[in-house]
Amino acid sequence: MTVNMSEKSMDKFLRLRLRIFMLIERCLKIDGHHKDYEGTLSIRYPNYFQDINNHNDIVIELQCYPLGPHRRHTWQGKTFEETISEMSKTICEWEQEIEVENED
Question: In the chain, where are the structural domains located?
Answer without folding.
Answer: 7-103
